[in-house]
From TrEMBL:
<keyword id="KW-0413">Isomerase</keyword>
<dbReference type="GO" id="GO:0003978">
    <property type="term" value="F:UDP-glucose 4-epimerase activity"/>
</dbReference>
<dbReference type="InterPro" id="IPR005886">
    <property type="entry name" value="UDP_G4E"/>
</dbReference>
<protein>
    <recommendedName>
        <fullName>UDP-glucose 4-epimerase</fullName>
        <ecNumber>5.1.3.2</ecNumber>
    </recommendedName>
</protein>
<keyword id="KW-0520">NAD</keyword>
<keyword id="KW-0119">Carbohydrate metabolism</keyword>
<comment type="similarity">
    <text>Belongs to the NAD(P)-dependent epimerase/dehydratase family.</text>
</comment>
<feature type="domain" description="NAD-dependent epimerase/dehydratase">
    <location>
        <begin position="5"/>
        <end position="253"/>
    </location>
</feature>
<comment type="subunit">
    <text>Homodimer.</text>
</comment>
<comment type="pathway">
    <text>Carbohydrate metabolism; galactose metabolism.</text>
</comment>
<dbReference type="GO" id="GO:0033499">
    <property type="term" value="P:galactose catabolic process via UDP-galactose, Leloir pathway"/>
</dbReference>
<dbReference type="InterPro" id="IPR001509">
    <property type="entry name" value="Epimerase_deHydtase"/>
</dbReference>
<dbReference type="InterPro" id="IPR036291">
    <property type="entry name" value="NAD(P)-bd_dom_sf"/>
</dbReference>
<dbReference type="Pfam" id="PF01370">
    <property type="entry name" value="Epimerase"/>
</dbReference>
């Protein structure tokens, strides 16, 4: 019988790519999503169960229906700026929602849990390559909410034996090379889709938020990972748990940082079009530089982030952009 995995947030950007990867690996991905920021037409690779993380009865129903071998938990709010203005929204949805889900999983005897955490849990640690042992000092409510969920998972392991793989993502980019699914947030806050929109004339010029950071060209530096590489790591993480290897934290990034201006230069080269941009003020909550130490995932999971180069990430995102799926 095909093994089911509950994928919360499966109608969103990363969750929909994870469903495709799970399906290809022989699992049945069951999307659990309230469509608050996701899209029903992104649920293409398995059943859809509409529901909210905060609705325990609905979660119990779905666990009982599918008897999943694991949960992959992507559902969350994830805009740094919004989290600074409305922290309660983040603590309620991300932390209380995740707690409700974790309790439902344990009650259903589903003891394998894969969780989307973030490099935002590390905070602003200038000029350090961040590895899994780095201290976590989030500087925004979003990062704080994710760190709290990591703590909950650790406590549930101690109390009930829940096994978790926690992935701390750096900046996720790109899309399915077959363009069946892709990135579409509304509002969009991520650099590459914003830039492609500006290139295609679908929005005004791109704003560079802050040009006075202490970096070689004054703009923020981020470590970009291809969404397909990222979801491959999730399938490896799932197998890790199924093999009984126990709880573990892994960073997912490449160890290479690119400034906003460097990403703009690459986009110009990939699309062969000019990137209209203006220079603006810093955004509250943004860190100067976030670069991953990702040796652990490569060594222990056998992960190979082969597609995580800017040319492929921007190229795949551009392919998706041109399908017109973007016009919602
Ligand atoms: N995109 C990135 O670069 C990035 C970086 C680090 C971490 N992450 C994390 O990865 C995960 C997925 O990010 P994404 O970019 O795909 O976001 P997304 O907004 O595209 O997807 C999130 C999905 O979760 C659903 N959702 C939100 N709250 C819910 C709730 N209470 N109940 C049910 N469904 C709910 C939304 O409808 C949406 O489909 C998030 O947890 C995010 O914090 C993303």
């Amino acid at each position: 019988m095909t093994k089911c995995v509950i994928v919360t947030g499966g109608a969103g950007y990363i969750g929909s790519h994870a469903c495709k990867a799970l399906r290809a690996a022989g699992y049945e991905p069951v999307t659990f999503d309230n469509l608050s920021t996701g899209w029903e037409d992104a649920v293409k690779f398995g059943p859809f169960e509409k529901g909210d993380l905060l609705d325990r009865a609905r979660l119990d129903e779905v666990f009982a229906k599918y008897n999943p071998v694991a949960v992959m938990h992507f559902a969350a709010f994830s805009q740094v700026g919004e989290s600074m203005k409305d922290p309660a929204k983040y603590w309620r949805n991300n932390v209380i929602g995740s707690l409700t889900l974790i309790e439902a999983a344990v009650a259903a005897g589903c003891m394998n849990f894969v969780f989307s955490s973030t490099c935002a849990t590390y905070g602003d640690q200038d000029n350090v390559v961040l590895d899994e042992e780095s201290v976590q000092l989030p500087i925004n409510s979003y990062g704080a909410s994710k760190r709290a969920i990591e703590d909950i998972l650790e406590n549930f392991e101690q109390a009930f034996g829940l096994n978790s793989v926690i992935f701390r993502y750096f900046n996720v980019a790109g899309g399915d090379p077959e363009a069946e699914v892709g990135e579409f947030h509304q509002p969009e806050t991520h650099l590459i889709p914003l830039m492609l929109d500006a290139i295609a004339g679908k929005r005004d010029a791109l704003t560079i938020f802050g040009t006075d950071y202490v970096t070689p060209d004054g703009t923020c530096i981020r470590d970009y990972v291809h969404v397909c590489d990222l979801v491959d790591a999730h399938v490896l993480g799932l197998k890790w748990l199924e093999d009984g290897k126990g709880s573990r934290v892994f960073n997912l990034g490449t160890g290479k940082g690119f400034s906003v201006r460097e990403v703009i230069d690459h986009s110009r080269a990939v699309t062969n079009m000019e990137v209209p941009y203006v220079e603006g003020d810093r955004r509250p909550g943004d860190c100067t530089k976030l670069v991953s130490g990702s040796e652990r995932a490569i060594k222990e999971l056998g992960w190979s982030p082969d597609r995580s180069n800017l040319t492929e990430m921007i190229g795949d995102a551009w392919k998706w952009h041109q399908t017109g799926h973007y016009e919602k």
